[in-house]
Every structure is written in structure tokens, then in C-alpha cells.
Structure prediction request, 470 residues.
Amino acid sequence: MELTRRKSQTNKINENDPTTLNQASILNEKRKNSTDMTPTEKNNFLFYLQKLFLDQISSNTYFHTRILFIRLLGLIYTFSFLAAYHQAPVLIGYQGLYPSYIYMNRMKEHYGIWQSPSIFYFLPSMDTSDISLRTICALGTLLGIFLLFTGRCNAIILFILWCLQTSLHNIGQLFYGYGWEIQILETTFLGMFLVPLYSLSKIDRHSPPSILFIFLMRFLIARIMLGAGLIKIRGDQCWRDLTCMDYHYETQPIPNPISYYLHQTPNAFHKFEVLVNHFIELITPFLCFGPWRFIRHIGGTLQILFQILLIISGNLSILNWLTILPALWCLDDSYPLYKYIFKREIYTEIIYYGFPRRIKFLRSIIKLFVFSLVIYLSIDPILNLFSRYQRMNSSFDRFHLVNTYGAFGSVGKIRNEVIISGCNRTTIEQCNRDNAWLEYEFTCKPGKIDKSPCFSAPYHRRLTWQLWYA
Prediction:
């Protein structure tokens, strides 16, 4: 079988050899500073177009970005399925609050299973036990742990995770109606084309990340942030008069201990926070498409730092962790901070062997088709962004491949808490007479004023969050 041979970056070198390290440093510096082009390239419009939009030049590699992407995605899936393993049987199990088998029977009867596809339609005992539900959640947790601790992944693993998450989301009903449920599906779908097809090599020499799907990841972070920014501008008046942050830390779904201290900061600082929010969500997304590398680095860094601040300030489940994922693809291996993150992984020139031409051609056709499909499916979400009646966290296709996003279009000014109490007396009159009512406490739910908030994200407490809507 004939193999094609071509050059990419990276060949691990001996980091203990000063001479080799110096040679590698000189080589990398020359590569970064090289701007020589042939006369043909200088006069070739397609070359400039390729460099401007696809950045398909030899000095740009994304091996480190891909490792970070895989590990963070593994962390997110670990917590997502771990939470589902503990909570799903109580919420959507056969004896849960919203039994999924009843919902599936109705969907099958009135719409057919392809209206809301799920592998649970084909699994036994959904109406008699939670074995299938727990098995799916356990499998998802194990796959997430594998990605997290190895940094290795292929398209097959991501496809399995995507199927499991889609199946759970499509039978989750009320408890799986949050924006990050469809965001993780879209992110995972795009991620399938940024990892090797079947290899589990950490730095796969056969499958460098596809430039087309790197662009789609940048497109995703831009849509997420613009959706969040525009829904705020069109929504609550407090976003326009810069007062929303006066209330947000107190009235958000599940505050954490730091939220209390942020709530106490001066009003002038809260106004500054709103201005920064508008700048990050409405202006900086365009930096992700910058024609120069350093502009994209700035755009990606600002998005990541913004999400880290949100992680610190409240318990927003996996939302902010998940939003970091597409922002990572604004950063290539020349990103300055990578040399501190990947101290032991120094790479120089690599020779890698591609697939046979027919297979490579077929893969290219598939990627081009999927890229075109995503662009086509993006028409409605883009039109939604500019609509006066913007919808947030909605899907326009049954597989949730391209979606609309947004968060906190309105901010509560007063926090009202639902308090649930119970009594072990025979009648309500006896409970009242004996003052025997006892309050049910939900983990991390604000209630008693002498009880401190807790840290829970990225673990998502679905029932506690849902009570916030009540």
C-alpha cells in the first residue's frame, strides 16, 4: 500500500541536552519569523485568502491545543455523567419525578422515535428498573475519565459520548432543558473532526486538526458570546442602565461563597463589570477571526479569562467550562503560555506518514460535506441573532448540530426561595398543633440565612437549580 510522506511540526527531542535545545530554539524562531514567499504566492489571490481565513500555513499547529481540548472535554463529561448517574434515576427514572419511559411512549406513539432520537428506545427495562439508565451514565463517566487523565481521544470515542449525551438529553424533559445540554452536543460533534479517526496517539502524526473545523470552533465561540451579549442588550433594562450586577451575585441560581463578597463591592465597580461584560460578549468575538495570529491569541485569551472569572463568581454548572473549549482553538502551539503548561513536551520537526491517497481524499470529501452542512444549518441561528425576537438556547435541528445560545437576558432583583417542609404526624392539624414541621434541605440551595453557600460547579445539581425557576 502506497503511503504519502510529508512534513509537519514536531518530533520530541531530548530536553536534557542543551545543544539540541538550542538548535530547536533556533529552528522554531526561524520558522516563526519566516515571511519569504515565492513570486507565485505573492501574486496568488487564493494564497492570501487561504492565509486570511483558514490560516493553513506550515508554522501553525494545534497539537497542544488539542490535548487541552480533550482533557477539558473529559473533565466536563466526567462531571456531567457522574451527576446523571446519581440524579437521573430520581429525576427521570422509572419511579422518578418525570419518568422517562412514559415520555418515550408518548413520543413513539405521536411523533416517532426519530423526532427525539435516543438509544434508550432500544434498551430493555426502562419501565421496571434504572439499570439501563445507570449503565449509560457509568459508561459516559468512564470515557470522560479516560479523556481527562490520558489526553488521548479519537472520533469513535467522541461519537459514543455524543450518542450517550444526545440520548440522555432527549429523554430528560424538564431537567435537561438548559443551554449547556445542547452546547456540549454541538462542541462534541465538531470535536469529532479535530481528533484522529481511530488512533489514540497523544500527538497523532496522521491526523493534524482540520483547518475547516478549527474555523467552525471559532465560529461557535463567536455565536455563543454574541448570543449572550445581544440577549442582554435586548432584554432586561438593567443591562442598559448598568445596574444588573448590583443584583446578580445574590439572585443567581446557586451562589458560591465568593458571590457574597462580590455582592458587597461598590456600585461603581458593578457598573464597570457590566461594561466589561458588554465588551467581552459583543466586541471581542470578532477578534477570533483576526487575520493575524496575535489578534486571535488576544481574542481567545480574553474569552478564557472571562469564563474563569464567571467560574469563580458562581455555580453555573458546566457552562463556563464548556465555553472555554471553542475559545481554545483561537490559540495555536505558538501561544506564549503553552511553554509553561507543556514544559516537558518540546517538539521540533516531525516526519509523518499520511493515509493512502484514496482514503485521504474520501476523508477530505466527508469533512468538506460536514463543513458545508454546518454552514447551511447555521443560517437560522444567525438570522435569530439579528431578530428582534431572539430565542436563546434553542435548536433548529433534531440532532442539535447548530444551536442558538444566551444567558441571563433578565436578572432578578429580589430572591424568593421555595421552602419545602414535611411532617410525620397523621394530619396537617396535628403538625400545626405540635409545630412539627421540618424543613427539607437541598444541597447548595440557598435557604437558611445562617448557612453558607457552597461550591458545586462543574457538578450540576439539577433539582436545586430547577427550584430557582419555581
About this structure: DSSP finds 20 helices and six strands in the chain. The radius of gyration is 25 Å. The first helix runs from residue 18 to 33. Residues 1-37, 39-43, 46-58, 346-354 have pLDDT under 50 and may be disordered.
